[in-house]
Amino acid sequence: MNETAQVKTVLITGATSGIGLEFAKVCAGLNYNIIAIGKDPGKLNSLKSELEGKFFIKVDTVKADLSNTEEVLKLSDYVDSFDTGIDILINNAGTGVYGEFKDTDFTKELSLINVNVVALSYITKIILKKMLRRGKGKILNVASTAAFKPGPLMAVYYASKAYVLSFSVAVAREIKDTGVSLTVLCPGPVNTKLLKESTHIELQFIDYEKMSDPEDIAIAGMKALERNEIVTIPGFRNKLNAFLVKLIPSKVLMDILYRSKKNSLKQS
Ligand SMILES: NC(=O)c1ccc[n+]([C@@H]2O[C@H](COP(=O)([O-])OP(=O)(O)OC[C@H]3O[C@@H](n4cnc5c(N)ncnc54)[C@H](OP(=O)(O)O)[C@@H]3O)[C@@H](O)[C@H]2O)c1
Question: How many CB atoms lie within 10 A of CB 39?
C-alpha cells in the first residue's frame, strides 16, 4: 500500500475546546488528518498550528457557526469538494442554557437547538451518505447522560441530548451491516467551558472530584467507536445513574432534581 492510501481523515465539530480539543489531540496522535469545524477563526488557527507543530498530520479548518442554519447547509459544498473521503465524523459541538424556561433567552435556546440538534443531524446526513457509498466509516455523536432524563432548569439542553440519543440509536439500526457504524457517547459531568459557563449554578452541587477529565472522555469515545458500540456511557457512576433514573417514577425524579437545583439557586 502506498503512503497516500494510508492517510485517514477525521472531521470534528467543536474541536477548539473541551472534549472536542481532546478528540483532536487523540486523533492526531493516531495519525489522522483533521478537519476542524468551528466558529472562531483565531481558535481554529491556534489548533492548526498546535497540532501540525506536534504531529506529522494536516489540519484543515472550516469556519462555520453551527447555530446559523445557512452556514450549516453550506457545509455540503465543502464535504462534496473533499474527495479523499472522511473516515470518522465526530459530532461534538454543543452549547447549553441554564435557568427556568420562562426566564431564559429564547435566542440562546434557538442557537442551542441549531447546534445540538439541527447541525448534528444535517452533518450526519451529508457525511453518512458519502460513507455508505464507500461502504466504510464511523460516526460518533456526543450526547450526554442528560439524554436519559428530563432536566428541570436546563430543559432545552436535556431535551436536545435526548434527541441526539434517540436519533443516533435509530440511525445506527438503519445502517447495520453496511460497513458504516454510528456510536453515541453519553458522558456525565466533564470539566469544560460548557459546564462552567452554562451551568455556573449547577456546579455548586457537582462534586469536582467526580467530574471527568475531557481527555479521558475522548479516549473512551474513540475506544467505543473502535468497538462499534451503539451507546456508550463512560464511567461506572454514570452508567449506574443512567440505569437508576429508569427505576424512579418520573414525577418523583423531577421533584428531586428540581428542588435540589432550585435550593442551589436560592443559595447563590
Ligand atoms: N461538559 C460536560 O459536562 C458535558 C457532559 C456531557 C456531554 N457534553 C457534550 O460534549 C460536547 C462538547 O462540550 P464541552 O463540554 O467540551 O464544551 P466546550 O468546551 O464549551 O466545547 C464546545 C465546543 O463546541 C463549539 N461550539 C459551540 N457553539 C458553536 C457554534 N455555534 N458553532 C460552532 N461551534 C460551536 C465550541 O466552539 P468555541 O470554542 O468557539 O466556543 C467548542 O469547540 C457538547 O456536545 C456537550 O453537550 C458535555
Answer: 18
**Per-domain boundaries in the chain:** 3-267
Q: Are 80 and 128 in contact (CB under 8 A)?
A: no
The x, y and z cell numbers of residue 249, run together, are 417514577
Determine the 3-state secondary structure of 36 from DSSP.
strand
- What is the value of pTM for the model shown? 0.95
Q: What is the pLDDT of residues 201-250, one digit of tens each?
A: 555 556 656 789 999 999 999 999 999 999 999 999 999 999 999 999 99
Nearest-angstrom CA–CA distance, 8 and 112: 31
pLDDT digits (tens, 9 = 90+) for 55-106: 999 999 999 999 999 999 999 999 998 877 999 999 999 999 999 999 999 9
Residue of 74, 81, 175 whose CA lies nearest to 128: 175
CA of 1 to the centre of ligand 1 (A): 37
The CATH number of domain 3-267, selected from 3.40.30.10, 1.20.1250.20, 1.10.287.990, 3.40.50.720: 3.40.50.720
Ligand 1 proximal residues by C-beta, below 6 Å: 14, 16-20, 38-40, 43, 65-67, 92-95, 115, 142, 144, 187, 189-190, 192-195, 214
